[in-house]
User: Fold this.
Amino acid sequence: MKQRQIGAGVALTTLALVSFSSIGFAKDVTTSGKMSTSETQDIVNTLRTKGNFHKMLSGLEIAFDLDNELKGKGPFTVFAADDKAWAKINQADQDTLFNNKNKLAQVLSYQVLKGDKLDSKALESMTAVKSMEGHEIKLSIRKDDDKKTDGLYVDKARVKDADIQCSNGIIHIVDQPIMPPLAE
Assistant:
């Protein structure tokens, strides 16, 4: 019995040493490949791992195949609103939007540029871009004394985190969802 306990202790010590020594190599032990990062993940999986994008991700699944499309080849530029940004829209309006699949698809596809991977430098040199939904999105730069309002704007939304590289595009996190003119 004592011999079995010693063997288990040696095995646990060996496992701990192997685990600790492999930390610096950044390999995924399940696939023996490199660890997954936003640069190796598609846009949807980056949003899943990046932070609080539950509202946007559930909308992508409800609306239509945009969820699957954003996992595709791309390239895409996405103006993603996190859950805090979605909270700026009152709950009744959110419920109405999320219960209307067509309007939700229109709103979410407005937040995507298909065929372009535009970083913040490229966007800063432009005045407008055409969304996947079809309408133009206005771009502007504000230089204010207040650093909280400085920066790149997409329609009325401020880009608060730019240039998140993905395997099939780029994400810019905005401080409120951008909305197209909605069809009746």
